[in-house]
Amino acid sequence: MRFRNVSKTYFAGSGSGVAALRHADLHVRRGQYVGILGPSGSGKSTLLYVIGLLDRPTEGRLLFDGRDTSVMQDAELSHLRGRSIGFVFQSFHLISHLTVVENVALPLFYQGMTPREPAPGGGADRAVNLGHRGHHRPGELSGGERQRAAIARALITNPEVILADEPTGNLDSHSGGEILAIFAELHRRARR
Q1: pLDDT confidence band for 117 (50 / 70 / 90)
Q2: Rounded CA gap, 85 and 100, in Å?
Q3: pTM of the prediction?
C-alpha cells in the first residue's frame, strides 16, 4: 500500500477548510506491522479512514496492491474494502441484539455469504480466545472480550490489511495488553 502526496481537507459551511492531512507519503509493505503515533487531532484517524477506503483524499493517490483507488467507483471501493481490509475501532461497534457469533459473521453477510457457507476466516472467534463466549451478547461481555469480538469480526474474511484505530483506548491496562498481544500473535502467524 502506498500513499502519494495525500491531503484531506474537511470543509465547513462557510467554505473555509480544516486540513486533517497535508501531503502525506507512506509506503507499507506486505507483512509490516506499523504504528502511527501523534497527539489528539493530528490526523491519525483520518489517515486510517483514507487508508481503509472509508474516506477519499482531497488530493493525492492511494495505491492498494498497485491499483489506484482514486479512479475507482464507490462499488469497486466497497468490494475492495470488504474483501481486503479488516477494521478494529476503539468503540467496538458491536450490534447489541446480536450474539458474538452473529457479530463476527456480519462481514460474511455483506459479502453475500450465508452463515451455512464455510467462512474464509473460519474460527476467528477461537483465534482471539473467545469461542466459549460465542452465544453471548455484547452487554454480557467485558470490554476486553468485546474488543476480541471486534478483532474476530475484522479477521473473518481473511483480509490483507487489518486497521486498528486506538483499539485499547476503552480498556484497562491488563485488557489493553492482551489486545496488543493478540495483534502481535496475528502478525507473527501472518509472516509464516
Answers
A1: very low
A2: 20
A3: 0.83
